[in-house]
Amino acid sequence: MAVIRLQNLDNRITELTREIAALPKHIAEIEKKLHIHERKLEGDRAALLANQKERKGLEAEIQVQEQKISKLKDQMLSAKTNEQYRAFQHEIEYCEKEIRRSEDRILDLMAESEPLDKNMKSAEAALKEEKAQVEAETQQARERTAADQAALAELQGERKTIAGSVDPNIYRRYEMIRKHRGGIAVAEAADGRCSCCHMAMRLQFFQDLKRNEQVMFCESCGRILHYNPPARLEDLTGEPASVIQN
Q: Final residue of a domain: which of 150, 165, 180?
């Protein structure tokens, strides 16, 4: 029956169409993950750069304070009163306090920079591998899509030929059933039941179907039915059944 071949073609066409549509989505998903990881790495780099910049600023501030202390000490030597001496001393103590504050902050920043640097190097290595994987999967997807599109074009050509050989009334019925039955318009009759809706057939109906004299439709779901007789033992073995029995 031509509609059986038509159904098989439509099933394969549906599979290929879904696969062709799914491949770009898959690539978009892995590229999205890659971009998220890239932005995370950029954030780590920015944080490390800000850390290093603050440390350099603090180191420069320490140098300024040390120069102030050196000048203040020189000026202390020329102090004429105790009040002037104590004033210079207070300024030196303030500068030393600022130096200690900067040094403490530098130590904190160094502690913060270690995991940032470690994470950044680890992320760079992982990102390099991920980029290579994305590029490989993208190339594979392009090749698979091209192959699927070629196969799809071939199947559609074959479908057009077979559809043209089917009785127009049967073909219209086939398309209507396929539209309303999830793409499946043809079902096998096995053990007296429809393989799709699993409803039992009337005995006379099943006997008529087995004669294969006309196109018949499931009385329950309306699908086109076909019957495949069980294979004979001699067909499977190539030997007469009597030989096997003996």
A: 165
Measured distance CA(29)–CA(199) in Å, rounded: 43
**Torsion, CA 227, CA 228, CA 229, CA 232, rounded to 10:** 180
- pLDDT tens digits for range 55-107: 999 999 999 999 999 999 999 988 889 999 999 999 999 999 999 999 999 99
Measured CA to CA, the distance from residue 63 to residue 9 in angstroms comes to 81
Section 15-29 average pLDDT: 94
**Domain extent at residue 208:** 168-233
DSSP annotation of 194 reads E
CA–CA separation, 171 and 169 (whole Å):
5
Among 11, 239, 132, CA closest to 3 = 11
Q: Report if residue 36 sits inside a domain.
A: yes
Average of per-residue pLDDT values in the chain: 91
Provide the percentage of residues in the chain whose pLDDT is more than 90: 85
Q: What is the mean pLDDT of residues 182-206?
A: 95
User: Could you write out the three-class secondary structure of 92-131?
Assistant: HHHHHHHHHHHHHHHHHHHHHHHHHHHHHHHHHHHHHHHH
Q: Pull the structure tokens for residue 26.
A: 């898959």
Distance of CA 87 to the CA centre of its chain: 70
Tell the burial category of 135 from Cβ atoms under 10 Å away from its Cβ (0-12, 13-18, 19+): exposed
Number of domains comprising the chain:
2
Answer yes or no: is 243 within a domain.
no
Report pLDDT for 26: 92
Terminus-to-terminus CA distance in the chain, angstroms? 38
